[in-house]
Amino acid sequence: MNFLIGLIAGVVGGLVGLGGGVLMIPLMVSLKGIGQHKAHGTSLVAVTFTGIVGAVTYASFDALDLWAAIIVSAAALWPARVGAKYCCEVPELKLKRIFGVFLIFVSFFLLLKPYFPSFSHSYMSLSEILILLITGAATGFVSGIMGVGGGPLMIGGMVLLAGFDQYTAQGSSLLAMVPLAAVGAFTHWRLGNVEENLLKGIVPGIILGTYAGGSCAHFLPENILRFIFAVVLIWTGSRYVKSPVPTCD
What we know:
Largest sheet: none
Order of helices and strands: HHHHHHHHHH
Radius of gyration: 16 Å
Distance between the termini: 20 Å
Number of strands: 0
Structural class: mainly alpha
Shape: globular
């Protein structure tokens, strides 16, 4: 079961450039019965592997901007630690509802992405660097508190504001999430929010799934995949928003 959770999250994460936490967290909570805080911390450990494998896979298709990834990740490191610490200060019911709203936001981002205006890509201009820095800071905080890689924010900033093409934004996002996910995971681990036994199955699954998803991303119809993924996120997010009672760790 743990391997299957990692495999599903890895395939979806590799396909759309996300860390996979948006699927791993609800699956771990519903199928493994662990608390929301521990699900977030465990997810961040797995997301680190998603980023590594996904970035290598996208790089093999020449769809990765190294400097953009470095700038975004550098700006995200400190906010990721702040977010991870703040996660433990939020009551579990409130955290579930916040996470549900986040999932719904991600879904609408994916659905509406083709209709957003695009901007010309001016490589490493002052405005682009500023956009990447702001994007990284926002992504880091969301990654730390939500236990996800922050791909929707990174990809959104790079595609909608900096003019990156979708594939390069996804590949760069996967690379950028490696250090920030690692920082958030380490913080959660120190706080006792990592279920190490689950990782023995999840990590191999997510490595295989991310490679498969990242490889298929350049050949499968993106619009159909994005629509299916968005529907799943809306359904899952709605369940979290309506959570009546928090579960105990």
